[in-house]
Amino acid sequence: MLNVFLLTYFTKKLDLAVIESNNTITANYGDYVHSIFKKTSIYDCQKKFLNDVKINNVDILLFDTDVHVLESTFSFFIDVHIINPLIKIILFSKYADYNFFMKCLKYNISGLMTNKSNEQDLRDFFKISVKKILMKR
Q: What is the sign, positive or negative, of the torsion defined by CA atoms of 51, 134, 89, 13?
């Protein structure tokens, strides 16, 4: 229980962004993420997020990807890291194989949520992301 309180203590100082087109993330985890972050912003497209992240700091990004646009997803992450090299990205995907995992490592993705993932998995990825953020400050 102490870990949950410690995690919330740090996440309450951080801003979270969610990019999704079908409300999968907010439907499954919306109440949880709204309760533990200082600010949660929801976007339905990458372009709006890229315009906003230039002005407003985002510490962690939850990104729901479409299986058919994987290459553009990773090029989007390059654009995000150019604007904010310290942002931590947790990727939600129905697609996962060895090559996909390797690309996630290559593009510095902090976590990968699949159909079999649950809230505890997301919490664990938040812990990893918060540790990385604290180590950079």
A: negative
Q: How far apart are CA 95 and CA 43, in angstroms?
A: 21
Place of tokens 């390059």: 78
Under 8 Å between Cβ of 51 and 28: no
Q: What is the pLDDT of residues 10-55, one digit of tens each?
A: 999 999 999 998 888 999 999 999 999 999 999 998 999 999 999 9
DSSP per-residue codes, 72-120: HHHHHHHHHHHH-TT-EEEEE-S---HHHHHHHHHTT-SEEE-TT--HH
- Of 134, 117, 50, the residue nearest 17 (C-alpha): 50
Looking up tokens 């410690």 gives: 6
For the chain, the straight-line distance linking the first and the last C-alpha, in angstroms and rounded, comes to 26
Phi, psi of 71 (to 5 degrees): -65, -45
- Please give the DSSP secondary-structure letter assigned to residue 56: S
pTM of the model: 0.93
Q: Tokens 């729901």 belong to which residue?
A: 64
DSSP codes joined into one string, 11-49? HTTSEEEEE-SSSHHHHHHHHHHHHHSSEEEEESSHHHH
